[in-house]
């Protein structure tokens, strides 16, 4: 398993970048391309909804991966933002599905 302290090689069993927002971060123009069902799901969640994103599944995957927002597509594995997010949540100590032990 990847450690948050080293660059990850896969998004499997992570999903920590999905802990940055309460709902899928679509631009208004993107929302128009979604089905009515998915639009309703997105629009009924707001800042009062608990983190993480409403579409993150218990096994740390995007429930509607094929329809995910553009900004989610652009969030790159092992990028500076990816590493920052993994390390920040580790320090907060409220994420326990990823080992905090450095890889040997
Ligand atoms: S991009 Fe980084 S933070 Fe997001 S799921 Fe992949 S490894 Fe985790
Ligand atoms: S829409 Fe999917 S990929 Fe984007 S933050 Fe939510 S769960 Fe993560």
Question: What is the count of β-strands?
Answer: 0
Average predicted confidence as pLDDT: 86
What multimeric state do the chains show? single chain
Order of helices and strands: HHHH
Say which molecules are bound, naming each kind only once.
Answer: iron/sulfur cluster
* Helix/strand/pairing category: mainly alpha
Helix content: 25-40%
So what's the overall shape?
A: globular
Largest sheet: none
- Strand residue percentage: under 5%
Instruction: Give me the number of helical elements.
Output: 4
> How far is it from the N-terminal to the C-terminal residue, by CA?
11 Å
Overall tally of domains: 1
Alpha-carbon Rg, integer: 14 Å
Given as residue ranges, the uncertain stretches (5+ residues, pLDDT < 50) are none
List the keywords.
104 residues; mainly alpha; binds iron/sulfur cluster
Summarize the structure.
This protein has 4 helices and no strands. The protein is mainly alpha-helical. The radius of gyration is 14 Å and the shape is globular.
Describe this structure in words.
This protein has 104 residues and is mostly helical. The protein has one domain. The model has no long low-confidence stretch (mean pLDDT 86). The site of one iron/sulfur cluster (SF4) has 11 residues, from helix 4.
